[in-house]
C-alpha cells in the first residue's frame, strides 16, 4: 500500500473512533437528558459544568483532527516525493542495465580479440625462435668471417709495416744525405769567413758585417689591436712577422715599414710564432688551444694542429728540417708534431708548465723553460728528460733564445735576470741585469744578436735594453714605446732590431 492509502485508512479509523466516542458520550449524557426533565433551576449549575466539559473535549477533538490533517498533508507530500525518487531510481536502474548489457557485449568482443592476439603472439614467438636460431647460425658465420678478416688484415698490416719500414729507411738515408749536404755547406760557409764578413750561401745572398747597436727608431707601426706578443724575422731576410691579440699574422717590410701581407684563420690570440728554415711556413701558437700552420706564398692555412687542452704559449721549428715542430701549452704537456703528416708524434707530460721552447741546432733535442724557474733538455725521439738546471731561482722562465752558432742559449726570467748558458756544459757563462729593466709578462721574449755580441730585452716601463755580452753591461737603452715591451727580435742580417709592446705597436730600430 502507498503512504496516501495508509493515510486515508488512518483518517477513517480516526473518524470511526470519534463516532464511537460520541456514542459513548451520548450514553454518558443520558443522565443529563433525564435531568432535563428536572427543573432547570435545580439542574442549571450541573448542566453548565457538563457543557463546559463537553466543549473542552470538543475543542480537543478539533485540535486532534487538525493535527491529523496536517500530518496527512505532510505524509502525502512525502509520498509524492518518494514516488518521484522511486521513478528516478527505476530509470537509473534501466540505464545501468542497458550500459551493463553494452559492456558485456564489449567484453565478449575484447575476449574474442584477445584470443586472436594470443594465437598471433604464439605464432610470432614460434617465428622469433626460428629467427633466433638463424641469427645464432649467422653470428657464428660472422665470427668466423671476422676472424679470417682479422687474420688477413694482420697480414696486410704486417706487409704495410714492412713497406713503411723500407720507406722510412729510404727517408732516413735521404735525410742523412741532406744533412751531410747541409753540413758540407756549413763547412763551406765557415771557410768563407774573412775579416768578420760572412757571405750568405742562400738565394738572394748578400754580405753583412757584425751586428750594430741600434739607436734610432726607423719605423713605428701600429701593427695589432689589443697587443702584440710575438715577432720574428724571416731567415736571411729583413721581413718581419708579427702576431697579436687580433688573431692575425702580419708580414712587414722593415725597409719601408709597409704591410706586405696578412694571414688569417687563427681563432685565438697569437702567443708565439715560428718559421721554417726555408721561409715557406709560419706556425702560430694560439690561446684557442691549437697551432696553425700557414703557407706563406698562398696565405692559406695548411694545417690546424689540435691536441692541446689549454692555451698554447710556445712553439719552435727544427733548424735543419721543416718537418718537426714542438709546442708547449698550459695543459702541462710538450708535443712534437710532424708537419708532413699533420699530427702529433710524441707527447711529453711534466708537472710544471712550460713558457718557452727552442730546438737545438741538430734538431734532436729540445730546450724548455718552465714556471718553476728551471731549464730542461729533452730527447725528441724518446721524450726523456736529458738534463735539468736551475736557470732562475723560484721565478718563471719567460724566454729561451738560441744563438746563431748554437753554442749559447739565453734565458730570461721573472727575476729580471738574463742568463747565458754554454750549451755543452749547461753552465752559466754570463748574467745580465739592469736597474730599470723589469720583465713584463710570463711570455716576454728577449733575443741574441746574430754575431752573439749583444742581448736585447724589453721592459715593463716601455724601454728596450741592449747589453754587451763581452762586457756584461748596458750599451744602449731605446725609448719609444709607451707600453710594456713584450718581444724583441734581431734580424739575421745583423740589423735591424724589432720590438713589440702591449698596445700592439712594433718599432723597427736601426
How does the SSE layout of this entry go?
Elements (H helix, E strand, L loop, with lengths): L2 H26 L1 H7 L3 H152 L6 E2 L7 E2 L8 E6 L5 E6 L5 E6 L4 E5 L4 E6 L6 E6 L5 E6 L4 E5 L4 E6 L6 E6 L6 E6 L3 E6 L4 E7 L4 E6 L5 E6 L3 E6 L5 E6 L6 E6 L5 E6 L4 E5 L4 E6 L14 E2 L5 E5 L4 E6 L4 E7 L5 E6 L6 E5 L3 E5 L1
Antiparallel strand pairs: 1-2, 3-30, 4-5, 5-6, 6-7, 8-9, 9-10, 10-11, 12-13, 13-14, 14-15, 16-17, 17-18, 18-19, 20-21, 21-22, 22-23, 24-25, 25-26, 26-27, 28-29, 29-30
Helix pairs in contact: 1-3
Organism: Citrus clementina
Protein name: Autophagy-related protein 16 domain-containing protein
Keywords: Coiled coil, Repeat, WD repeat
Strand order of the largest sheet: 3-30-29-28
Major beta sheet summary: 4 strands, antiparallel
What portion of residues belong to β-strands? 25-35%
Round the mean pLDDT to the nearest integer and report it: 87
What's the helix count? 3
CATH superfamily of one domain: YVTN repeat-like/Quinoprotein amine dehydrogenase
Helix content: 25-40%
Tally of DSSP β-strands? 30
Reported by name, the CATH topology of one domain is: Methylamine Dehydrogenase, Chain H
End-to-end Cα distance: 134 Å
What would CATH call the architecture of one domain?
7 Propeller
Cα-atom Rg, whole angstroms? 57 Å
Briefly note the structural class of the backbone: alpha+beta
Which CATH class of one domain?
Mainly Beta
**Poorly predicted sequence stretches spanning 5 or more consecutive residues:** 191-209
User: In terms of quaternary structure, what is this?
Assistant: single chain
Give the CA-based shape: elongated
